[in-house]
Automatic annotation (TrEMBL):
Species, as recorded: Neobacillus rhizosphaerae
Origin: domain of life: Bacteria
Domain Sigma factor regulator C-terminal: 179-325
Keyword hit for Transmembrane helix: yes
Protein name: Sigma factor regulator C-terminal domain-containing protein
Cross-referenced Pfam families: Sigma_reg_C, Sigma_reg_N
Transmembrane segments: 36-59
Length: 331
C-alpha cells in the first residue's frame, strides 16, 4: 500500500466519534461545569458576605445616629433606659429598650419599646409598651386628675410650674409620709421659684434626691400657658416629658452636674433625632440663665425613699406642690 493510500485511510478515521474520545470530552465538560459551579458559589458567597457586612455596617451607623440612650439621660423624670437588645435582619434591625424607675434602693419596670430601624427609610415603632400609655381619672380625694402607667398601674408624677396660677396645689407628701414603713415611695416636688443647682443643693440636700427638673420654658411660653390654658391638668408638666438629670442620693450634686447636662444637650442638638425639641429646650435655658450668670435653673426634683426618709421634705417653704408617684414594697 502506498503512502498516499495510508494518508487517505487515516483521514477517513473519525477520532471524535470514538468511545474513548467521547468519554474524555464528557469528563472535561464535567470538570469545567464543576469548576464554574464552584467559582459561581464562591463568588456569590463573597458578594453576599460583603453585602451583608456592608448592610450591617450601615445599619450600625444608623443605630448610633438613631440611638436615644443619650437622650434618655436628659429627658424623663427618674426614668432610665436599662437593658434591651438588637435582632438583625438583612435589611433592618429590631431594637428593644427597657425603661425603669429607681425608687429607694430598688427599681421597677416602667416601659418596653420595640423599634424597627431599616437600612433605608424611616424608623418604625413596633411597640411602645403600655408604660407611656396613661389612664386619666379625676380623683376627688386628690382634687386633681391622676395619671396611671397602664403597664404596671403605678401613678405617674406631674410637676407644677413656678409662676403659673392654679386652682389647687396638691400636697401629697402628707400622704407619702403616712404610708407603711415597708413601702418605697416616689414623690415629685415643685418649687415656688426657679433656683440654681447650688441653691437647691443647700436647701434640699442630696439624701433621697434622685432627679432634678431643669427649667427649659421661656417667658413667652409661660405667658402663653397662663393665658391660653384654662385648667390645672393642662398647665402641669408630666414627668415623662420633662428635661432634667439623675443625681446620686449618696453624693452631693453641684454645678458640675449642670455643666455635664448642658454638654449633653449641646451634643444632642447636633446629632440626635430629637434635636428639634432639644434646640427648643436650649433656647429656653439660654434665656433663663441670663439672670444667673449662665447657671441653669431648677424648677423641681424627684425624691424617693420610705415614709420616714421623706418626712424631712415636709414643711419646706420653697416647695410649692408635691405629687405622689410610683410605690414598691421594700422587701
Amino acid at each position: 500500500m502506498s503512502d498516499k493510500q495510508d494518508s487517505k485511510n487515516v483521514e477517513d478515521i473519525d477520532f471524535l466519534s470514538s468511545p474513548a474520545m467521547q468519554k474524555a470530552i464528557r469528563k472535561t465538560k464535567r470538570k469545567q461545569t464543576i469548576k464554574y459551579v464552584i467559582i459561581t458559589v464562591l463568588t456569590m458567597i463573597i458578594l453576599i458576605t460583603g453585602f451583608f457586612s456592608s448592610s450591617q455596617y450601615l445599619i450600625n451607623k444608623r443605630i448610633e445616629k438613631e440611638d436615644s440612650t443619650m437622650f434618655d439621660t436628659v429627658h424623663g423624670a427618674n426614668i432610665q433606659a436599662s437593658g434591651g437588645g438588637y435582632n438583625y435582619d438583612l435589611f433592618s434591625v429590631t431594637s428593644e429598650t427597657r425603661y425603669r424607675k429607681t425608687i429607694g434602693d430598688r427599681t421597677i419596670l416602667w416601659d418596653i419599646k420595640r423599634e424597627k430601624i431599616p437600612l433605608f427609610g424611616r424608623k418604625e415603632t413596633l411597640e411602645s409598651g403600655n408604660g407611656m400609655v396613661e389612664v386619666n381619672s379625676l380623683n376627688k380625694s386628690a382634687q386633681r386628675y391622676v395619671r396611671y402607667n397602664d403597664l404596671n398601674n403605678e401613678r405617674k408624677i406631674d410637676f407644677y410650674y413656678p409662676g403659673l396660677s392654679y386652682d389647687f396645689l396638691p400636697n401629697e407628701l402628707k400622704i407619702a409620709t403616712g404610708l407603711d414603713e415597708n413601702v418605697l415611695i416616689e414623690v415629685a416636688l415643685s418649687f415656688n421659684k426657679p433656683m440654681t443647682i447650688t441653691e437647691v443643693s443647700k436647701q434640699l440636700g442630696h439624701d433621697n434626691v434622685n432627679w432634678l427638673w431643669v427649667d427649659t420654658t421661656s417667658v413667652a411660653q409661660m405667658k402663653r400657658m397662663e393665658k391660653e390654658l384654662d385648667s390645672d391638668s393642662n398647665k402641669t408638666k408630666g414627668g415623662g416629658g420633662a428635661f432634667g438629670f439623675d443625681v446620686n442620693p449618696e453624693y452631693s450634686y453641684s454645678e458640675k452636674n449642670g455643666q455635664f447636662f448642658m454638654d449633653t444637650m449641646d451634643q444632642l442638638s447636633q446629632t440626635d433625632s430629637h434635636k428639634r425639641s432639644i434646640k427648643e429646650a436650649l433656647k429656653g435655658i439660654n434665656e433663663n440663665t441670663q439672670s444667673t450668670d449662665g447657671k441653669i435653673r431648677l424648677n423641681g426634683a424627684v425624691v424617693t425613699g420610705t415614709s420616714a426618709e421623706l418626712r424631712r421634705f415636709q414643711n419646706l417653704d420653697f416647695i410649692r406642690a408635691s405629687v405622689l408617684g410610683a410605690t414598691i414594697d421594700k422587701y
